[in-house]
Amino acid sequence: MSHLSSLLRPASFRGVPFQVNGADLGVGRRVQVHEYPQRDQPWVEDLGRATREMSFDGFLIGTDYVDQANQLLAALETAGAATLVHPWLGSMQVCLSAPARVRFDSGLGMATVSMSFVESGELAFPNPTSSTQAASRLTADGLASAAVADFSQSFTVTGFQSFVSSAAQGQLSTMLGFLGAGQIAQVLGTATTTANLITQAASFISNPAMLGQTLLNAFGLSGAAGSVAAWSSVVKLISGTASSNAMQPPSVNQVTRNDTPSRRQTNLNTGAVYGLGRQLLLAQAVGISSLVGTEQDNAQAGVTQPQAVIQQVTQDAMLAVRDTLLSALDAEMRLCGDATFDALQEARSAVYADLTGRAQSAARLTTWTPLETMPMLAIAYELYFDATRDAEILFRNGIRHPGMTPPIPLSVLAA
Q: How many other CB atoms sit within 10 Å of the CB of residue 1?
């Protein structure tokens, strides 16, 4: 008994005191695992901190241990959250998560109460707000669906000569081969699956709806989610790829009155294949744009800590991403079908509202010139009262000798 007493520390619940000698605490994060067709790795979405759970035994010792136990039991049976004070966990609002168990020991003159709690949040009713990031993601889904719908209406090989199907397969292979090479393949995760994707697409050549859905799955966000950094660069890369000459239909002879129906359909199929590819890329760019400027975004792809922290996305960078994506969407509006045109307009409005609004609170760049040659550490302290931010200025301006920074205009974050 004396050994136990030396290990006990005071605690209380709802103002009723007791003693403890430890605690079992459960902590972590809540996650949602998203799995995609034809993807070996999932995308894990972080939903926030998990509710903390704690359990421990409370000891009530003394000649009046029964009265002490009854007071604690009354506190535990009272409705609502209350304050728990624990020597190691601190003070917090909690609710009892399971019925407490009490054990009386007359020989030791002690009662032991086993308790389990969960932290209690505040009752807060939702306020009607507009989430511009969610709106961008919704319009991205709408754009992808509209692109597949327009493709299904214009693309067909059924009822035509065999060279129509062969030509369509050739255009598919060419387009997917381009997307399976270079940096865009690393972003979309198609670098190692292009051959299988071409084979799979060819098997659905007579079913435009399934063919369109297959390409939609292949261009899914799961590949890009693996980068987790440089979303700004990802949006620019995808937008630039969609607008590149390689994603335009190859030159074909202008359709004339003398062309056969098969020749006309071949030309329609070619335009439909490349149009679907561009529009699915743009749909991904629209969705990813909602992550630009967030804590997950870094201005430079492939940076490592601590550089990743200092390469934050500035207001000018966010607006540059916005303008690049809007230009690509505008260009596609001049080429697409009716359903996709409406979806592109909605996506354009959502992207403009989202990035323009969030850029207002982003860090802004300004120009500052030292009065004389100074060490970068002194400049960082002069600007921010924090000498550890010297690397931020160093990398942004490409200074070669941080110990002797000349009096030249430096691009720095506004304090």
A: 11
pLDDT digits (tens, 9 = 90+) for 312-326: 677 788 888 899 999
Residues contacting residue 245 through CB under 8 Å, at least 6 positions apart: none
> What pLDDT was estimated at residue 225?
43
Instruction: Name beta bridge partners: 11.
Output: 18
Q: Report how far residue 259's alpha carbon sits from residue 121's, in angstroms, rounded to the nearest whole number.
A: 71
Assess contact for 49 and 42: CB atoms under 8 A: no
Alpha carbon distance 143, 145 (integer Å)? 5
pLDDT attached to residue 222:
42
pLDDT (0 to 100) of residue 226:
44
Instruction: Identify the DSSP state of 401.
Output: -
Q: Which residues of the chain have pLDDT under 50?
A: 222-228, 253, 299-310
The structure tokens 């890329």 sit at 281
How far is it, in rounded angstroms, from Cα 66 to Cα 335?
83
Estimate to the nearest angstrom the gap between the alpha carbon of 295 and the chain centroid. 9
Rounded to 5, what percent of the chain is helix, strand, coil?
A: 50, 20, 35
Q: Which is nearest to 403 in space by CA: 374, 381, 363?
A: 374
Q: How far apart are CA 289 and CA 141, in angstroms?
A: 13
| Alpha helix ranges (H) inside 35-115 | 65-76
Cis peptide before 306 (omega within 30 of 0): yes
Quick one: which of 297, 131, 173, 275 has its CA closest to 224?
Answer: 297
The neighbour count for residue 90, using CB atoms within 10 Å, is 8
Q: Tokens for 317, please give them.
A: 């960078």
The CA–CA distances, whole Å, from 352 to 72, 315, 318, 362 equal: 58, 14, 11, 15
